[in-house]
Amino acid sequence: MKRSERLVDLTNFLTENPFELLKLSTFTERYESSKSTISEDLEIIRQVFKAREIGEIKTYTGTAGGVEFIPDISDKRSVEFARDIQELMGHQKRILPGGYLYLSDIVGDPTNLKKIGRILAHEFIDARVDAVMTIATKGIPIAQATAECLNVPFVVVRRDPKVTEGATLAVNYMSGSSSKVESMVLSKRALLPGKRVLIVDDFMKGGGTLNGMRSLVYEMDCRVAGVSVFIEGPFHGERPLVDYRSMLRVDNIDLANHAIDVRLGNMFDRA
Amino acid sequence: MKRSERLVDLTNFLTENPFELLKLSTFTERYESSKSTISEDLEIIRQVFKAREIGEIKTYTGTAGGVEFIPDISDKRSVEFARDIQELMGHQKRILPGGYLYLSDIVGDPTNLKKIGRILAHEFIDARVDAVMTIATKGIPIAQATAECLNVPFVVVRRDPKVTEGATLAVNYMSGSSSKVESMVLSKRALLPGKRVLIVDDFMKGGGTLNGMRSLVYEMDCRVAGVSVFIEGPFHGERPLVDYRSMLRVDNIDLANHAIDVRLGNMFDRA
């Protein structure tokens, strides 16, 4: 097989298997080439992926060695993606009676979801995330997109237990916006103890739901690797939730003039 | 830029932008190369993608011309993927009280979802799908994975209207298993008239839910491009649903012996 052909297949193979330690022998066999030839190929890919900000190609030497592709966008690209979504958010037709926002088109589009997933994966790339957690229904696409980018599973919390979940663990939490006590459940078999969990949701008002998921993580004997929300909505008063990162922030929904004030969230404050 | 470097970046660019007609000028500018050079690059990629069953690279000539990457797996790969999932399904720990099956781990894993999405995308590659439809909650990951592979949006039907959905269209349907009349709703703005909709769900018993979605598609002045289900469960009697394709089929759940009889679904009958 020619180098040009190997490079095409190898590039596709690596991007298809992110965060997986692939042994060099996988490739020497696949291409019937020597280790040194494959190493040269990988070096070319490594440089292009670095220059084009596609991600990192890590090589490990020794008997347990191999190569790993770590997809990751740059801070700059992350902001660009967030601005793309911000632009979609600003449309006045999103405003629903009662000041609610219609988001289903955004979180139902694979192109947007890929961007959202990459922003969140970039934000928590060093947090050693073992699993992503969200609550049904609208958080699911965001959790799935993030989990895909981090190559970890995701688990879905529900407001009511279902017969298809088996034994469940339930927690009560205080809704931040209405001060009511509510409950949420998760299948006992969804998470093993000790896992580092990234909590995500689509929209945050008072932060009560996110806090509920936080206590659910602790009750599962797991740890919180991070808390993130796609959109931080307007809220008057002090939120009980301290540490969260938002992608976008809606400060004001002007029902009279059909205008929404959408900004980048606190995730980008450092930029 | 060297050919080897161009091939790496071009391969990644194409796989990142499936089903998009990309103008050749995009690449002549990106790589500061001539059209004939880029055409040669694309020919190399086309051949590798064909040999490795990654997908098809289509080139169109003329002023509206360009190149399009159509990811698609082979029938053979599709069966292999289905067998991978079938193996996961057969585990006795899946059986829950009442004969229900625990599936959340399977549909919460990005690797499995990618396989499921590819099988479904392959099955309906010629059905000119404009959008994928499913019902909350467990159908969502399957719909999202399929929509991603087909690069179309997905819409989520609910059992109850939510304030964040705006105006909704509701239909009543007959639950196939319990013969009760139930209802489901979809946001009016979720689908434009005339769209071709692929209906997917995670589990089918009597098929009533799928039939409900079918009537919802018609009430939206859209058309059904296909109906598919991840798992076809055991059902005694005649299903009111005629035309559907299942990926896996569970014929029997033996509660006494904790055994599940899982086979490939009718999607693979032709093989």
Shape of chain A: globular
Uncertain ranges of chain A: none
Helix percent of chain A reads: 25-40%
Structural class of chain A, by secondary structure, is alpha/beta
In N-to-C order, the SSE pattern of chain A is HHHEEHEEHEHEEEEHEEE
InterPro entries (chains A, B): PRTase-like (IPR029057), PRTase_dom (IPR000836), Pur/Pyrimidine_PRTase (IPR050118), PuR_N (IPR015265), PurR_Bsub (IPR010078), WH-like_DNA-bd_sf (IPR036388), WH_DNA-bd_sf (IPR036390)
Protein name (chains A, B): Purine operon repressor
Organism (chains A, B): Lactovum miscens
Domain Bacterial purine repressor N-terminal (chains A, B): 2-71
Textual characterization of the structure:
- The structure is a homodimer of 271-residue chains.
- The mean pLDDT of chain A is 94.
- The first copy, chain A, has 271 residues and is α/β, with parallel strands linked by helices.
- The first copy, chain A, folds into two domains: 3-71, Orthogonal Bundle (Arc Repressor Mutant, subunit A), CATH 1.10.10; 75-268, Rossmann fold.
- In chain A, strand 11 (245-254) and strand 12 form a beta hairpin.
- In chain A, helix 4 crosses helix 5 and helix 5 packs across helix 6 (139-150).
- Helices cover 34% and strands 27% of the residues of chain A.
- In chain A, the strands form four sheets. A six-stranded mixed β-sheet of chain A has the order 6-5-9-10-11-12, with helices on both faces. Chain A has a two-stranded antiparallel sheet with strand order 1-2. The first copy, chain A, has a two-stranded antiparallel sheet with strand order 3-4.
- Chains A and B meet through helix 1, helix 3, strand 4, helix 5 and helix 6 of A and helix 1, helix 3, strand 4, helix 5 and helix 6 of B.
- Chains A, B: Homodimer.
- Chains A, B: Residues 113-254 form the Phosphoribosyltransferase domain.
- Chains A, B: This is Purine operon repressor.
